[in-house]
TrEMBL record:
SUPFAM superfamilies: ABC transporter transmembrane region, P-loop containing nucleoside triphosphate hydrolases. It is found in: Cell membrane. It is a multi-pass membrane protein. It comes from Jutongia hominis. This is ABC transporter ATP-binding protein. The chain crosses the membrane at residues 54-72, 141-170, 248-266. The lineage of its organism: Bacteria, Bacillati, Bacillota, Clostridia, Lachnospirales. Residues 19-301 form the ABC transmembrane type-1 domain.
Length: 579
């Protein structure tokens, strides 16, 4: 499917409404066409012919035409505007739904500012096209063609003289359209760059301030701002070349009228009334010519925006949904990794990972930074697909599950805590918005968050800022844990979830997790041995490989990496281990 076909699919629904709009525009053009003709009759019949009794009815008709034109203009604009809003609403909705379906790889590749630009600036170019450009171009083509037809009926030689501008106008239109399209693409890219920069700077405002880099960022902003300005000026430079050509062609028509028309009237080959009528039609020829350059711009802006939006929309996610998905509303939580490897950007991220977890067990994952700990749980949630081997949950390859069912059974407190600008209650109840307040409080208690939340001035109704601004790192982690717990998942993933809380709080949370009243497999990724030492099995990762695997006791006996870390973190216990 091409971008234009995709766009037309949205427009199709409104074709009847737009057709009526076009009919009204046609009536409007016909009414506009009649006015000069009536003027001709007034000149030839009333003024020169002396039939004054026709004056009042003819003026009456002129007034009637003004009313018809007003009604048609108003109604057609309503029809086109409502169509454009309808098209835009459906398109925004469809693109947004697709964005929600996109995978991690897509969001890694695409910048937030670009995606925002698609949903705002590019959408607006489409709205402008449907609401205004389509009918304006149609109306002006209509004026041009009908005015030429009328001039032909009035005086053929005069009309033929005027037609000579047509090939030149067509050629200029073609050349402008061709050269301005890449320039507008550059403008849209530059706009995306500027958008991305501003968005990142606002989000990362605290870092900018902490490093006192305002001046540096200002310079960087100036660069982006310059790029955008240059792109817009570059586009303007191109289309500006063509505007005088169209302007010139419209003057040529006026000169032809004065010169050829004047001579003809003097020679008696044309009446004065005919000259007045042709003069009345002249604006119908000159206005479209003068405005042609602008409309070509609008059309090119529109096509560039449709192409950009369609590019985003048609991006195929790497994570494919199975054709016949296994539907399991409630999973048990048995997890098996069989010879799993994961490669990305020609790098081995995980190599030959094997382990088996029974439902209800707790698994600790520890290892150096960048060892691949988070990648293990990412593969389990199908945020990425294993390059080799199989990731099984309850004996079924995760690739075969209905993705929604699979993820609905996994509660995740991610390393990078994200909170929405909503109340604390809303953030905790995100996975189950209809849950009772008592349940929200219960999970908050388990995550040791209830106490500090109640101490906030508005308690659970406190609105947390964007990304949880206003809360400490440990508080955000506890809210994120409560949010994951509320789902009552079969598998709970805690990725570095208690790194920012003190040992006492961590120990309290661990006790609470032991008391979860449903069978729940727990994956704990941590740097602190204290976070995972009670796990049923511990995976020690280094450079994408499991280098040690066992319980806390077994790993201490091995006296390898795990034991070394333990000795570092618990020097007082190190002697006991040695004994
Ligand atoms: N989809 C991907 N594309 C490219 N690189 C990836 C991808 N997934 C993971 N990586 C890389 O793989 C390595 C392991 O990442 P991962 O997040 O699993 O490490 P980690 O052990 O959880 O690290 P940390 O403890 O620092 O969070 C990192 O270098 C990361 O950049």
């Amino acid at each position: 499917m091409t971008a234009m076909k995709w766009f037309y699919a949205f427009l199709k629904k409104y074709r009847l409404r737009m057709f009526f709009g076009m009919v009204l525009v046609t009536i409007l053009a016909a009414a506009a066409l009649a006015s000069p003709y009536i003027s001709k009759i007034i000149v030839d019949t009333v003024i020169k012919g002396g039939k004054t009794e026709y004056l009042i009815p003819l003026v009456g008709i002129l007034v009637g035409l003004v009313v018809v034109k007003g009604v048609c203009r108003f109604s057609s604009q309503v029809l086109f505007e409502t169509s454009s809003q309808g098209v835009l609403y459906a398109m925004r909705d469809k693109v947004y739904r697709k964005l929600l379906m996109e995978d991690f790889a897509f969001y890694n590749k695409n910048r937030t500012g670009d995606l925002m630009g698609r949903q705002t600036g590019d959408m607006d170019a489409i709205r402008h096209f449907v609401a205004y450009v389509i009918y304006t171009i149609y109306e002006n083509i209509l004026y041009f063609v009908l005015a030429l037809v009328m001039i032909f009926t009035i005086n053929v030689p005069m009309a033929l003289c005027m037609v000579i501008v047509l090939p030149l106008a067509a050629l200029t239109t073609y050349l402008q359209a061709k050269s301005v399209h890449p320039a507008f693409k550059k403008c849209r890219d530059a706009f995306s760059g500027l958008n991305t920069f501003v968005q990142e700077n606002i989000s990362g405002n605290r870092v900018v301030k902490a490093f006192a880099k305002e001046d540096y960022e200002k310079e960087k902003f100036n660069v982006q701002n310059d790029i955008y300005r240059e792109a817009e000026l570059g586009a303007a430079k191109i289309w500006r070349r063509y505007v005088p050509v169209f302007e010139f062609l419209s003057y040529v028509l006026t000169i032809i009228l004065m010169l050829v028309g004047g001579i003809m009237v003097v020679k008696g080959q044309m009446t004065l009334g005919d000259l007045v009528a042709v003069n009345g039609y002249l604006w119908m020829l000159t206005v479209p010519l003068r405005m042609a350059g602008w409309w070509i711009n609008d059309v090119q802006r529109f096509t560039t925006s449709v192409e950009k939006i369609y590019d985003t929309y048609s991006a195929e996610p790497d994570i494919k949904r199975p054709k016949k998905p296994v539907k399991h509303k409630k999973l048990e939580g048995n997890v098996t990794f069989k010879n799993v490897s994961y490669r990305a950007d020609d790098e081995d991220i995980l190599q030959n990972i094997n382990f088996d977890v029974k439902k209800g067990e707790t698994v600790g994952i520890i290892g150096t930074t960048g060892a691949g700990k988070s990648t293990i749980v990412n593969l389990m949630c199908r945020f990425f697909d294993a390059t080799e081997g199989e990731v099984l949950v309850d004996g079924v390859n995760v690739k075969d599950y209905d993705m929604h069912d699979l993820r609905d059974n996994i509660g995740m407190a991610m390393q990078d805590v994200f909170l929405f600008s909503d109340t604390i209650e809303g953030n905790i109840a995100y996975g189950k918005p209809d849950i009772s307040f008592e349940k929200v409080k219960e999970v908050a208690r388990m995550a040791d968050a209830n106490h500090f939340i109640q101490n906030l001035p508005e308690g659970y109704d406190t609105i947390v800022g964007e990304r949880g601004v206003g809360l400490s790192g440990g508080q955000k982690q506890r809210i994120s844990l409560a949010r994951a717990l509320l789902k009552e998942p079969a598998i709970l993933v805690l990725d570095d979830t208690t790194s920012a809380v003190d040992m006492e709080t961590e120990s309290y949370i661990q006790k609470q997790l032991e008391n979860i009243d449903h069978a729940c497999t727990i994956f704990i990724i941590a740097y602190r041995i204290s976070s995972i030492m009670n796990a049923d099995q511990i995976l020690v990762l280094d450079q994408g490989k499991i280098i040690e695997h066992g319980t806390h006791k077994e790993l201490l006996k091995k006296n390898g990496y795990y034991a070394t870390v333990y000795k570092h973190q618990f020097p007082e216990a190190a002697d006991a281990v040695r004994e």
